[in-house]
Amino acid sequence: MFHFAATAAPAAGNPLITLVVPFAIMFIVFYFLLIRPQKKKQQSRNQMLRALQKGDKIVTIGGLHGTIVSLTDDTVVLLVNDATKLTFERNAISHSVSAAASSESK
């Protein structure tokens, strides 16, 4: 009777490895499909915001078009028409029209 118990097959593989490997593969897939592209997009947006200068034509997140009159570290004053100046946070800028137009023509 004890002889049969001693000849039983041992458990196959390490259960820790079979649990960790699928999670590692999922993390790698998420990194390359979601995290890495989002980081690159954020870096390019931060670079665009740092490169803004007085006189650039921009579009805000709300769709307002204007020309930059003055800049500080965190605010931008836009000239919307001949007499209207509006102050926005620098983060409220969606994109620069002059930079977008030059990149489309290339």
TrEMBL record:
Coiled coil: none annotated. The keyword Acyltransferase does not apply. The lineage of its organism: Bacteria, Bacillati, Bacillota, Bacilli, Bacillales. InterPro entries: Preprotein_translocase_YajC (IPR003849). NCBIfam families: yajC. It comes from Paenibacillus lentus. Its main location: membrane. It is found in: Cell membrane. Keywords: Cell membrane, Membrane, Protein transport, Translocation, Transmembrane, Transmembrane helix, Transport. The chain crosses the membrane at residues 16-35. It comes from the Bacteria. This is Preprotein translocase subunit YajC. SMART domains: YajC (SM01323). The keyword Ligase does not apply. One of its GO terms (biological process) is protein transport. It is a single-pass membrane protein. Belongs to the YajC family. One of its GO terms (cellular component) is plasma membrane.
